[in-house]
Design brief:
Length: about 80
């Protein structure tokens, strides 16, 4: 079964930080929150394939035992 991971754009993370910084302390103090949506989830292999396509020196090694290993060659 493929592993799925949520992805979020850095601008969305920045907007979340700004929103929390502007919020009343009592409303957000000691809260754990998730930022993002399930629609941004992709199979890990799809993300790795895209990395290999965009970063020619990257090689993804899928072990099937946890996180994929990403290595960039120096040649």
């Amino acid at each position: 079964m493929p592993r799925w991971r949520p992805l979020i754009h850095c601008r969305d993370i920045a907007r979340a930080f700004v929103a929390f910084a502007k919020a009343p302390r009592a409303a957000v103090h000691n809260m754990a929150v998730n930022v993002g949506a399930n629609k941004g989830e992709l199979p890990v292999r799809d993300v790795g394939n895209q990395v290999e396509r965009l970063v020619p020196r990257a090689k993804i090694n899928y072990t099937g035992r946890g996180p994929a290993r990403i290595r960039a060659t120096t040649a």
